[in-house]
Design brief:
Belongs to the TTC38 family. It comes from Sander lucioperca (Pike-perch). This is Tetratricopeptide repeat protein 38. The chain starts with 8 loop residues before the first helix and ends with a helix. With 465 residues, the protein is an all-alpha fold. The protein contains 25 helices and no strands. The chain is 72% helix and 0% strand. The protein folds into 3 domains: 1-156, Alpha Horseshoe (Serine Threonine Protein Phosphatase 5, Tetratricopeptide repeat), CATH 1.25.40; 179-265; 276-465, no CATH class. The longest helix has 21 residues, at 365-385.
Amino acid sequence: MMASSFRDCKAWRAGGLPLSTSSNEACKLYDAILTQFVKWRNDETLGGFEGCISALQEADPNFVMGHVISTGLELVSTTSSTRLNERLASAVRRTVELANSQDISPREKLHVKAMELFSRGHFPKACDVWEDILVDHPTDMLALKFAHDAYFYMGAQTQMRDSVARVLPHWKPHMPLFSYLNGLYSFGLLETRLYDQAEKVAMEGLALTPDDAWAVHSVAHVYEMKAEVDKGLKFMESREKDWQVSDVLASHNYWHWALYFIEKVKIVMSFLSQANSWQRCKATGSMLDTVDACSMLCRLEMEGVCVKDRWRELLQVTQPHTDDHVTLFNDMHFLMASLGAKESGTSQRLLEGLQELAKEPGDNQQHQLAGTIGVPMCQAIMEYDQGNYNRSVELLYPLRYRVVEIGGSDAQRDIFNQLLIHAAMKSENKRHQKLGRCLLVERDAMRPSSPLTERLMQRALALHN
């Protein structure tokens, strides 16, 4: 039996979020999965996500919201596409069939609809449906978290912030998971450049729940975006014991920590090995860990560190996802890995797959952007890899203010800013070289005293004098 701390049928009803099942066990397991989702943590005492999902299916195989949460979690992990994965596609269909054959609440019906839309890549519409739920049920954490993730994949920064702001007044401190709203809200604040407010809100959350890894992650972003490197190093180290327990996010938090080391040009390889980023990424297959590893190697390579053996290792993780095309952000990182590993067939296949999907994208929001943003950005990365820096600049520069649309965070997308600067500096074209210097001046204005910017400025001067 599930621990008494999780909500049963009666508790969900009392909270205004009744669930259509008569099984108290199913209700508690649903709560246990939701709690782990919010905490970014496989709780081994509960059997982790997988254990809880299996137990939930046994407790009530026809519990619609049980299917919504388990299938929804797999979908938002972006590790698999319903286009290619028949098991996942049929799990979505099964949820829709169950919902149509039962007398469930309007809220639950909307949950099924949103999940089905998301499974087809119709991210904006799925978010609209989750927001519809939140208008009437502002304390529905599942709707809030799913919307938060989908906005993140679209680079919808303002929506990510406002979605949480709208529901905050309805939450009370006694409600389960209340303190985790701070981390969610803080992340939206920082992605809309409200750094001081973001830091304050995250710190308030950490005062309530010191092991909220998402709130820690938010503060890590703030120091990264302001290039407050020493502050960031000190903060991550002082809180490591707290956030390490959140196994789903720990590797990503180590990645943020490593970004400060890159700023300071300390060699990051030993740090990375210590943080087990590689092993984690190979063991978990988590997309977050995988794109982080790709991004880290690419950044190190730009810093002149030789990482070619690492690319070969990483290719084993990324290659099976070449045809997924769930998000453009993932695609671009997989491409970095195949180029780094000199696997030109895989790189070509990824690009051609994307070009194909761009022709008839249907409702899929990512495929709709493939033609105008995804394909040219992939081409720019390939041109850079081949030493065609002029062409790389010509492709990347016009897109620089649209890159946000591929999703991810400002810190993650910064790799494309750096790529453009490096391409401009290495280009033979004098105007490009000048542009590179302009981009560095602009970067310096936003992140004063960044050692990385300083280093690049020195390099630009050395190259062009």
